[in-house]
Amino acid sequence: MRWIWSSVILCLLIVAAAPVMAGGQGADLEALMKELRAMKAEMAKRDAEMRRLAQEQEALRQALARKDQEIARLRAAVEKGQGGQATEVASTEKEGPRVSFHGQYRINGYAVHGARDDSHPTAARMRVRQDIDLAFTDQFSTHLELELGHTNSNISTTSKELRVRHAVLAYKFSQGLQAKAGLLPLSDRFGDTLYSSDWDYNPLALELEAQVGPGRLRAFGAALDEGDEALAHDDFDHYEIDYGLKTGPVSWDGGVLLAEVAAPASGHQEPHLNYGISASTAWGNWNITGLVMGSYTDSALLGTGDDATGVAVKLEATGPLGPGKLGIMATYASGDDDGSGFLPVMALAKTYGYWGYTGLLTVQGPTDTGFDGDAVNISNNGHGLASVQARFTMGLTNRLSLYLAGGWFGNSSTGKGRSSEVGLDALSMLTYRFNRYLALDMGAAYAKVKDGASGYANGVAAGAFDSQAGDDRDKAALFTRLQAEF
After folding, report:
1. How far, in Å, CA of 260 to CA of 268, rounded?
2. d(CA 343, CA 298)
């Protein structure tokens, strides 16, 4: 194309020079022709350079296409279990890890009447959890959670230490297998009735999870307490395998756990078992959940004459009611006078979980602070328990919502001289959301705490009740919680 335009320009110049030639000015014409030949040579040189650059560009494009094909081939080989270079390939795609931050900043305030020790706690305190998540490749990532515990002594700098709550190494193998190792947040598959990461069940553990058949299989081993490293059998270890799947409209979960726990007297590990199955399904606009669990605990862990065995069941229905949402739950756990009935593993670890609806005999986030000691687990520490609970939630405005809950707790085997009732519990709370991250909770809770209540922190210690025999208490609390969660 450039040669065509060069020819046209040359013809025009010749036509323009015709009068000069006619006038006999041959010297000027010769000079003009010489200049035109020089311009033509320069344009040919530039055309050659542009062709060379175009060839180099095409060669680079082809090289990049081959590189993309090689990356795709390696990724496909790893997915089929035929290669092992995906980590190296992925690392060439990024100069560094992707970093994200999550956290929870919580300020609790409360005034309580009728606490376990007849004190009247009135306090304000703050707790901070800060997460740092690094994704190095599509396969490998880490998760770190730092926690500043509840602090109320900070005239200059808080006296509390910043501690590690989670420290997770996560790696995805081929065929959907994922492995995690470190200080892992672990929760059960039974509605926080056995153990819960929300209540600091974060042991040193190795966890494997994969798609097996139609569902997900999880298996882990966890060391909750190493005891004395010089001794081989004074530990608290937790081993578990569970499986979840969906068949039609029903979601199923089942599993079995074995805890090897150092007995108080001998220092040697003895077994504790929990096992069960749960099912959840939709019925119209309602969701129905039911579960059945069993337990076995060696008598050496309790100091009783017989091993502890028992069963627990739970039935829950949640769905719309008028302008809000209603939840109804009934639970039952078998028990004995000496605490040798059904036991969740949390009773041995002295931890807890958000398994109920109420605020004092069970707890919610805003009441799990300095006055939560009367909260009971699903079996009242092996003495058995039946409960009927209900809650109602609704939005009052686009920012303000209401939470109401109440429950009866009883049918506990507490021995002679104590009531079989654990108590009555009621909770009322308003929540105002400033935005998607920041919310303020304000509420009041009341419980009639009977002498048959054995708070979760008592564990399986014999005769560990919250009150003296015959001493019932009225417990009331006013509370607030300002929390940013992101």
Report:
1. 9
2. 11
DSSP string, 26-81: HHHHHHHHHHHHHHHHHHHHHHHHHHHHHHHHHHHHHHHHHHHHHHHHHHHHHHTT
The model's pLDDT over 114-126, given as tens digits with 9 standing for 90+, comes to: 987 777 889 999 9
Q: Which of 98, 107, 169 is nearest to 485 (CA)?
A: 107
Residues 6+ apart with CB under 8 A from 194: 188, 257, 274, 293, 344, 345, 346, 353
pLDDT of residue 467: 86
CA distance from start to end of the chain: 62
**Average pLDDT along the chain:** 88
The span from the CA of 126 to the CA of 99, in Å, is 26
> E strands, 298-453, where?
308-321, 324-333, 385-395, 400-410, 423-433, 438-449
Handedness of CA 179, 180, 181, 185 (dihedral sign): negative
Cβ(358)–Cβ(366) under 8 Å? no
Low-confidence ranges of the chain (pLDDT < 70): 1-29, 32, 36, 53, 59-95
Q: How far apart are CA 453 and CA 374, in angstroms?
A: 7
The reported pTM is 0.78
Helices (H), 332-378: 345-349
Closest residue by Cα to residue 150 from 131, 132, 123: 123
